[in-house]
Amino acid sequence: MMRITLSILLLLTASPALARAEDLSGSRILLEQQLRQSPGDAAAMVNLARIYVQAGRTSKAHRLYRELLGMENVALDRAAGPPVWSHWLAAEAIKNTGKAAKVKLSSRP
Prior knowledge:
This protein has 109 residues and is mostly helical.
């Protein structure tokens, strides 16, 4: 455990770009696991699609956004500002890949 922590610490201090890539990779893995457990989690789908866009995997992102459009339209909370509807966000993200999906979201209960 200590070796892993030290490796991560060295990575963070050695290269911010590599650290960001590792963070995206870790987030991607967690979100993919979340979607395996809860396939209809709209917030996880949006956040994973955003990561795919950042990684240059736009076709995977678009697949998630299209899948989201086929589901129930739900309100997604934002860290700041009013909630946004999942269908609007998915449609905008497909139209303007990378622009509409830059907000971390969570599903409303």
